Every structure is written in structure tokens, then in C-alpha cells.
Amino acid sequence: MRQPTESRFRVRYAETDQMGVVYYANYLVWMEVGRSDFCRERGFSYREMEGEEKAYLAVAEANCRYMAPARYDNEIVVETEMTRLNRRVVEFSYKIKTGSTLLAEGRTVHVVIGPDGRPRQMPERYLKLLQDKGAPSENH
Amino acid sequence: MRQPTESRFRVRYAETDQMGVVYYANYLVWMEVGRSDFCRERGFSYREMEGEEKAYLAVAEANCRYMAPARYDNEIVVETEMTRLNRRVVEFSYKIKTGSTLLAEGRTVHVVIGPDGRPRQMPERYLKLLQDKGAPSENH
Amino acid sequence: MRQPTESRFRVRYAETDQMGVVYYANYLVWMEVGRSDFCRERGFSYREMEGEEKAYLAVAEANCRYMAPARYDNEIVVETEMTRLNRRVVEFSYKIKTGSTLLAEGRTVHVVIGPDGRPRQMPERYLKLLQDKGAPSENH
Amino acid sequence: MRQPTESRFRVRYAETDQMGVVYYANYLVWMEVGRSDFCRERGFSYREMEGEEKAYLAVAEANCRYMAPARYDNEIVVETEMTRLNRRVVEFSYKIKTGSTLLAEGRTVHVVIGPDGRPRQMPERYLKLLQDKGAPSENH
């Protein structure tokens, strides 16, 4: 079993709100940090995929369940897994923690689009990198 | 049938990303604008509820489905409805549009907490206002 | 004397931080709202200038002095004036208020660049509109 | 001579805008990351100062000059120095770089306030920690 990718960073003051905790939309930003690191661990930068192939991962759906609040200066760990992959759709699942406390769980679904905003197929090279050895794939 | 609350504003440049469309986390910010306006339409500011009663609406869950991209300078309409209400839980549902185009649909679930972060009951006055059975009147 | 452009909106919860006031970087976002509205009042959308002419206003400098804190739900007014204009440089100055209270004063300096990031000249049409010698009229 | 504090992180997709570069207000967020790390290097978390002493560093002024654009996935280094310190005022200066390229230079001025928003003196313990061995101080 492949381990989830781990991203680590501290909560920024900018990310808090007047309730004294992290504003809820920022968890979606952290998920993006998680999937950027996931791609890097698979051997490419998401930046390359946009730059070289003009293939973009547009978000089709995002969900988050909030269990405990994150606070300024907390050390956050985002655990990212790819839970679905085919030529048109990629899904990531996330666990967001500080220490041993689970703060939130989330999921994002992405469709591959071109610069015109229309669906296209995932470029072969990136599909292979994402599939990796331990990645679930609907293509087999 | 009560109409949904409508919030209107233009997309800010800050809200776009390098894909040329609005970054996905910002839709959750717009939902917050929607529920702030919803409260105001029911006769109170969410600010008062925090300030006077020390009752906070913590987000327990957030979902968003993205149908079409929003772009800089688009006129956005957020339609907000309350789809669940009891002493402990409030749920809002949102439609985010520009012109006649549905851009996204979402939902947020909130639990009432005190300043200590523990669940508490929604203050009676605000429960009534949200139920819309207690429109502000000095005579009753 | 031409009046400053006025932009009006309410402080979003997302814009506050755990100090209970608006996070300082958000004032720069509000300045951007101000200059977007300024362009619109002069007869064009900044969006068009980017889309049609591939001319971009890159920020070269930004300053803000903070006098009093803005709070959630405050009604904000941004007063925007153009304080410098030539073919290469545009400068805007801002006063940010709530009611009669001056919250902040700021200034941004922009240089005109092309899609390659290199300096270019401001397109004639937009220069005229900004100078306010070319107010939109179908008769001239 | 004491070295500046170095903060390192990658540009988030959320931080870009449709010009394909980092939105200008985010540099102020990065400055905040810089001064948080600065405090930590001096032996305390800014979080403690707020939590234990109810002393807050309110931003009175912020400036940024932008030399070159930062892009998604760039490795950013923020170099933070304290350039002024007395019982009422702290000033930080920043250099923001990627590789050997200077992207931006900035400065923030902070006044010490209490929970009521009124100026107060910097708590002795934190003043001493900030003064450190190599810190400029107007108190000697």
C-alpha cells in the first residue's frame, strides 16, 4: 500500500478569522497544497502539465467535513491520496491534521480541460505518472 | 413560498487564478456573503449574534459543485436558502449564478457553539428570527 | 474638479482575522475594487483592456497607512482617484472609510506591460478614456 | 551582524491571479509569515504574546515595491529583519526572493495595542527577546 503524500506548513495569521480559528474556505487552499505536493512526489509539477500540455485540472466538486478547529501557528499536515483516476477525471481525498488531531476530511473531483475550457483527455505522460505503481486506475 | 435571499457583487481580480477563472475556494467566501445577507434580511446581523449572545455558527460541513467558471468582473448573484433549522444545527443551500448561467451549487452545515467552542443552543431570539415567525416588532 | 470614484461593499467575515479586525492585506484587495470601478466609470472595463489589447497594469508599488480598524459587516467606501497618468505609468490614490471614519489611505503605482511581461505603451483608446477626454459618446 | 530570518515555502495556486503571476496583496501575507518566523527564531511565538499578554502588533503602515513577478510553484524565500524597536513601535523590513532573483522589498510598521485597541507598552519579556544580542534598539 502506497502511503499518502504529506504536506506540512504552519497556519498563517491571514488564514484565521474573528472566531479565532482558521476560516473554512482556507481548508480548500490547503487541499490544493496537498495535491500539488502529490504531483511533485509522482515526478512532475502540475505547473508543467499546464505549461507544456495546456491541460488543466478544473475542479468539478469539493467537499469538506470540519471536525476540530485549526488555530494560528498550528503545524498542519495534509495527507493526500488519489482515490480515482481515468483519462477524464481525477479525484483526491485529504485528511487534515495537527499532531494526532484530525481537523478535517475532504475530497475534490477534477476534470481535465484544455485552454478553451472544454473537456479533453489527460496527456499520456501525466496519466502514467499519476497511475504509478500503487495508484488505483480504471484503465486496467 | 419565501424567495431565496439574493446577494449581488462583481468578481474581484484577487479572486481569479492563473487558469483565468475564479479560484474554487472563493465560492465558499461567496456563500458566506449569502448567509450574512440572509440573516440581515431576517432582521439581524450575524455580527450581533456573536457580539451580544456569544453564539457562533461553526461550519461543520461544506460542499460545492462547480458547473461553469466565473470570471473577473462578472456580476455574481448568490441565492441563499435555509434548508434546515433546529436549536443546534442550521443548514444553508446556495445557487451561484451570473446572468442566467448557473455557476455552482453548494451547501453548508453549521452547529451553534459558545466562545469555548462547545455546542450550545441557538439563542431563542435568533431562532425565532430565522424561523421567520418572529419578524422584529416592539409590540409583542 | 472631478469627484473620486466611490466603491461600496460590506466587510466579509473571510476578511477578518483573529484580532477581530480586517486583515491588513485585504485593504489592497479593496484598492483593486476601487480602481476597477474607476475604470468602469471612465467607460471601460479593465477586463476589456486585458482581453482586447493584451495590455496589463502590473503593480510596481503599493503603500497603505492604517488609521482605524475595519470590522465585519462594516459598510466600506473606497474613494479612488488617479493621481498620475502617462503612457507608461498610472498611479491611483485611495481613501478607505466607514461612515465618516477614515480607516486607511493608500496608493498604488502601475506600469503597462504586455503578455510577455515587458513594458509597453498604454493603448491610445484607454489612455484617452483615463484622461477623461474621451468619455464614451456615439456622436463624436 | 545578525543574519535575517529566512522563511521558505512554495507559491500556492490560490495566490496567483489571471495575469499568471502572484496577486500583489499576497506579498503582505508572506511578510507576515516572515515576521512570525522572526519571532519564533527569537524564542517565542507571536501567538503567546497575544494569548498570554493580550498585546497585539497592529499594522500601522505597509509598503511593497514589486521588481519581478512570482509564479505558481516558485520556491520563495522571505528575508526578515527588524529595523526599528522601542516600547511602542516595531518595524520589520523584508526581501522576497526566488533563487537569486529579488522579487519584492517591503516594510511594515506595527504599534503595540491592548485588546481594547488602545496603544500600550510592549511587555518587558517580549521586548527583551526581540532586542536579543544583535537587534537594533532605541532603548540604550
CATH architectural label of chain A = Roll
Report mean pLDDT of chain A, rounded to a whole number.
Answer: 93
The CATH homologous superfamily name of chain A equals Hotdog Thioesterase
**Shape by Cα distribution of chain A:** elongated
Q: What summary fits the major beta sheet of chain A?
A: 5 strands, antiparallel
Calculate Rg of chain A over CA atoms: 16 Å
Strand content of chain A: 35-45%
CATH structural fold name of chain A: Thiol Ester Dehydrase, Chain A
* Low-confidence blocks of residues of chain A: none
Could you give the order of strands across the largest sheet of chain A? Answer: 1-3-4-5-2
Give the termini separation of chain A: 18 Å
Q: From N to C, what is the helix and strand string of chain A?
A: EHHEEEEH
Helical stretch tally of chain A: 3
| CATH class category label of chain A | Alpha Beta
What fraction, in percent, of the residue positions of chain A are helical?
10-25%
Which class do the helix and strand fractions of chain A yield?
alpha+beta
Q: List the chains of the largest interface with their residue counts.
A: A-B, 22 and 23 residues
Oligomer: homotetramer
Number of domains of chain A: 1
Care to count the β-strands of chain A?
Answer: 5
